[in-house]
Structures are given as structure tokens and as C-alpha cells.
Amino acid sequence: MSVDPLSFLDGNAAAGELREVFAVDLTAAAGQCARCGRVAVLAEARLYVHAPGLVARCAGCDGVLFRLVKAPGRTWLDLRGLAYLQIATPDEQDRPPPA
Ligand SMILES: [Zn+2]
Question: Ligand 1: distance of its center to the CA of 47 in Å?
Fold first, then answer.
């Protein structure tokens, strides 16, 4: 499958929208793709913004990781493409990264 690298942004471009929903920067959270099992930080996702909302796709298999759509007074967040998210909490940020 050929992917045009100019047709998407990287997952970092979703930081502001995700911060409004969760009040933390989730682009640094590690998530597992429910389709292929790849584990990566959300910043590595391929972010498509030419849709009614944001669509983040797995850099490994192109499966949808999450969809985020905003309308006045509400936000929809579809996370079914993620098996899990691992979010650093303050006590974990003080620990050295795993080897
Ligand atoms: Zn995947």
C-alpha cells in the first residue's frame, strides 16, 4: 500500500485537541494498535485532518487508532482502534526510562 507522505501530519499535530479533552498531553502516551499490536507513542501516528475531525492512523498497518470530532458544546472521541493507552503519571515521570 502506497501512502503519500504529504497527505498527513504526524501525531504531534493532535496535541492541542487531545489536551482540551484530557488536560494532559496524550501524544506522549504509548498506545497499542488493536489491529496489528504495534506499540508506539501517539506522536508517531499519521494524523489526517482533511475530514470532519481528526483521524489518527497506525504508522505500522494504517489502521485507525482514534477519531476526534468536535461540535459546539461537545466532543466525540473514538478510541476503539487502541487496545490500550499507557499514560505517564507524575510519579512515573521521575523514574528513568526502561532499558
Ligand atoms: Zn497497526
Answer: 14
